[in-house]
Amino acid sequence: MKIMDCLLQDPALNTSAAGYMELAWNERARQPAFVDADAGNRDGEEAWLFAQGEQRARMVIDPVLEAYDIAARQCLALDHGCGHGCLTRALARRFDEVVGIDVSPGLIAQARHLNRTIGNAGFVAADGASVPAVNGCVHFLFSDQAFRHMPSLVAIQANLRDLARVLVADGYGLIRFAVLRDSAAPVPVPPEISAAPRPKSQMRTSHPDWRCVEPLGKDEIARLCRGAGFDVLEFRDDPTDPGDRGPLAVLRRGPDPA
After folding, report:
1. Where is each Methyltransferase domain found (predicted)?
2. Which of 31, 39, 151, 218 is the most exposed place for a label (fewest CB within 10 A)?
3. Number of other residues whose CB lies within 10 A of the CB of residue 83
4. CA dist 144 → 4, 80, 149, 256 (Å)
């Protein structure tokens, strides 16, 4: 299925929580610098960010594609909470088509501009509670940061249900949650990541008053995912991250009921 056959029209916001998320992330998009939680000043920033996206994809996404024999070609991928699209671009190298969605129209506009030469990637604004795509069109979904910034369990449940709706039966997902870790020990960062030159920056949040949902236990995450129609196959630590962002859940969409 081609991108334009999958996407729905950019939706209007329909909940107060989603409206707050849009305002918060649009504020980030309006910052004078090329703003991302991992980016700082403009010098070499765009090239650095997209290089890091490709490197993270090789170390985080590729092992899952290989472990579960996920055929990347002839498939449509979804980047949920795509921001500027650095991982959307990496997914575009691995899948025939990729769609990036984000609650911030400002970030979507920037992603479209920054990825304007990537012919198999499309970007669309979401309303913070649903996915602007038709049923059963996505083969692989990736969500790196979106669930960590959701303001409530209600928002998490709504997004999980809609991600399950757009995923094909037996399709796979890789989602990062804010997870209560079994140990406080950080995950070691490989030397090639820790030594990589990066723009000087201070970590920014999306809004000074932003409060996200508290980290969840893995049992609670599994329960929420099962309630949405997913099986949780495993939790994986991110080898590119020291552990403060939490591991990722590998999910599979259950078969549609007969």
Report:
1. 78-171
2. 31
3. 28
4. 24, 7, 10, 26
CATH of residue 183's domain is 3.40.50.150
Instruction: Give the domain range for residue 194.
Output: 3-253
Q: Assign residue 128 a region: left if phi > 0, alpha if psi is -120 to 50, beta otherwise?
A: left
Rounded mean pLDDT of 133-147? 93
Q: Place 44 in a pLDDT band, splitting at 50, 70 and 90.
A: low
Helix orientation angle between 153-166 and 16-29, rounded to the nearest 10 degrees: 80
Contacts of 230 (CB under 8 A, 6+ apart): 160, 164, 173, 251, 252, 253, 254
Q: What does the pLDDT read at residue 61?
A: 96
CB 210 within 8 A of CB 25: no
Count up the domains in the chain and report the number.
1
As a whole number of angstroms, the distance between CA 212 and CA 253 comes to: 26
